Structure formats: structure tokens, C-alpha cells
Predict the 3D structure of the following.
Amino acid sequence: MIKVEEKLFQNRYKVDTGRPHIQILDPDVCQIKCETKACTVCCPASCYTKEGDGQVTLITDGCLECGTCRVICTEHRNVSWEYPRGGYGILFKFG
Amino acid sequence: MSEQFDVLVIGAGPSGNAAAYTAAKAGLSVLQIERGESPGSKNVQGAILYSDALEKIIPDFRDDAPLERHLIEQRMWMLNDDSYVGSTYRSQAFNSPPYNRYTIIRAQFDKWFSKKVQDAGALTICETTVTGLHMDGNRVVGVKTDRAGGSVYADVVILADGVNSLLAKKAGFHPELEPRDVALAVKEIHFLPDTTIESRFNVGPDEGVAIEMAGTITQGMVGTGFLYTNAESLTLGVGCLLSDLRAQRVTPHALIEQMKAHPAIRPLIEGGEMKEYSAHLIPEGGYNAIPTIYGDGWMMVGDAGMFVNSVHREGSNLAMTTGRLAAETVIELRSEGKVCTAANLARYRTKLDDSFVMKDLKKYRDMPGVLENNHQFFTQYPALINRAAHTMLLVDGADKKSKEREVRKSFIRKRSRFGLLGDAYKLWRAFE
């Protein structure tokens, strides 16, 4: 199956380097308290990765700004989600 | 900038553009703020434009709007893993101008709409994210932006900031979205020559087809798929309730890959060049999920107010209508010398109640709950119906009466007699 990275490669982004618009509030909550780690499955751009030690890492460069990760994190509310600064982030060519 | 406007509009999608256009056209001073580099660059839709809602704002929109194809045929498919049972409605009535609906590409359409907004006299600022609301007690008096010194003020703020509507949440007007009230849709656009599209879909130049799908493509989750014809591209996508996606641990991009591999869909997109992959939340909660949509100094329009008719796959027309009605409310109040207090803005709600927006949402108010709690409509029924079609159509020497008995038995085995009656009743109630 085609990897999601190959799909995202078709998209246009203006990455705000060093200023991710989404952040994990407390990494320990993801690693220790959260059993489902649903963000690592449901993010359509696979921005969240479950590491071998249970840590959840987040790279927002490919983010499609849908909001899924924030909405599904109901148990721990551990996602700080803002829109990117004006002009940054995904730039849909077609939308 | 520290200026005062009559109306501030946050967002340049269909609802924000409708509001800004209507207010500016009436001579009000309007500032519209958009976070994308240009209007449309943050916006995602299927996308089908219903003419009626736009005609009420820009009657001659067909003269220069970027429209892809007018739809003359609508197909509805209920899919099993390797088959589908479908219905098609095709009519010359839908092929006679003025056309009722078109496919559009939002990045282009929103840019066009925004140009109209600016021509009407509104000031539109792009590449600017609104970060919060300025309050005076309970009253919204302006917004903060991420530009240096970027506060602006207005008599009324129209929140057209889309399904996530962070502003209403930060201000405490709304709680966070519930996973059961929104669907995540993922979508791709595939480019093909126009003549290929026309021969594959049996249409002429400028004529288009929309296919709506349900069944195993959503892997048992509440959701639907779609495939629309543009001028030189196809858009296809699939969306499921976030609560289901989370519970069943399905990866969205795997879902659309599986959809594209379906034997009925694969030949339609064969040879196309995929040029964009997008994702978007769609409000699906219906009438019961509509939050507070106005207060002192503010109103909420479009997806931010959850104005989507998920049964009929209508959203942008509700967006434009709510945007227009919000602006008309402000225009009326000003002409009467009234200020935009919550009590006065209640007129916006009345206008909505009197329009198709609330009437339709109210009609289907029970549908989201029925579907969410009855997954058999997305699992067992598509399988049963496809198998029934197969049984009845297969010529294998068995007599038709025996075949009918077998079909009847298969339904009763899966759902029981009471189950079948109950399901029929539930659907009837939800559609009533």
C-alpha cells in the first residue's frame, strides 16, 4: 500500500520551522497513562508515531489541520491545538 | 491597526464570504480576516455547489464563477466488498439551464467569491490568524490577531471560522466537539483528460456525475464515500464518524486506499494522476448538536455552527444561507437604530428557524443518533442486499420461488423478524 508520506508529498506546505502549531502538553501522559494512543492511528497525515518505549512523538510538518487529534483526545485532553500563524501550514492547491 | 468596523468576519469560506458580501453590499464597513495565504487555501469540500443559495447572494454568479461541471446524474451505491447495488437518477431537467448544482474546486471558487466580496467594498486581509476575542464584559467587541498590534474592533463579529471554531471554545461559548458529532473525511483529487472522464461517465462536455456510496467501504463505521467529476479531474473521498474511527482503530489513509481498490471504483479512476490529499472534519451531529449561535456582539455561521445536513450531503448551501441571514440581521438592526445585543441578534435565530436550514435539520434531528446506534445499516444490510441481488440474478437452475425463500431467510437469520420490523420503523421515524 502507498505510504501516507507519498500522498503528503503531493501537497503544498509552508512550514513554520521551529514553531509547531500543535503540541503534546505532557509527554508522560501519552506514554504512561494513555492506553489507546488513538492519535497514532486516526491522524490522516500520520503526524503521531508510537515509539517502541510507548512514547508518542509528534511532527506537525504534514498536518492537514483537520482537528481530529484534538477532538479524539477526550480522556486526557493532552493536545494543545492552535492554527498555524497566518500564511503558514497546509496550502491547498485544490481543497 | 486599531480600527473600528461595522462588521468583522472571521474566515473566507462560503459562510464568511456570504456574510461579508451581503454586509458590504448594503454599505456597511466590513473587515474580513482569513488565515490562508489566499481565500480557499485552508478550505476543503467534496465539492458540490448548490446554485440556489448562491443565486440569492450573487444572482449572475454563472457569468464568471469557476464552475467545473453541472451535475446531470446522481448515483447512489450500496457496496459490498466486491459488488454494489445502486440507483441512478439522470434527467434532462438537470441538464437544462439554469443548472441546479455544479462541482467546484474550492481553492479556485473561494478566491472568486472573495474577489466579489472585495468588489462589494469589504476589506479582506489574508495570512492573518485570529487568536482570540476582545471582550467587554460578556460582549464581543473585537478580535486579536497574530499581526503585531493586530487588534481590530467592530459592532458585531461574525464567526465563520469553520468546524473547529477555536474562537468560540476559547471564549467559553462552546465546549469541545464530541467525536460522535463530527466525521473525518479524507479526499484525493485525480487528474484525467476531460474526454476520458466524459466517456467513462457517459456524459458530454460540462456535464457531470456524482456518486454517493455507503457500505463496506467504511468498514462497518457510520460514514459514506463519494466520487465527483470535475472538468479535468475526479475527487473521491470517504468519511466516518470520529467516534467510530477511534473505536475501530482504522487509519484514514488506509480507508481511502481500500476504497480506491474496490472493483467498481478502480476502473473509474484508472490512470489518473493524484495531485492532492486532504482531510477535513464534517459536522454530522445535526440539529441536536447546534451550539449557541449568537450572543452579545457575535453570531456564528457555517460549519462553526454545525450547519450541515448530513442526510442530503448539503453543507455549503447552509453555510452561504446562514452567512447571508446573519448579515441581513445586522443590516436590519442598523436601519432600525438598534445595537447588536444578544436580545436583538435573536432575530438571526428566528430567520434560521424560518428557513430551510433549521427546518431540514429539525426534520432529521433523530437521524445521527439512529445511525450511530444501529451499525447494521452500514454492515449487515449492504451485505444482505448485495447477496439478495446476486441470488436473484444468478441463473443456476434453481427456481425463483426457492431463491426468494433463501433471500427472505438470509434477512431473518441476520436480523430476526422483529429486528427487521424495528429497523424499518427506526428509519421511517428518522426520515419522517
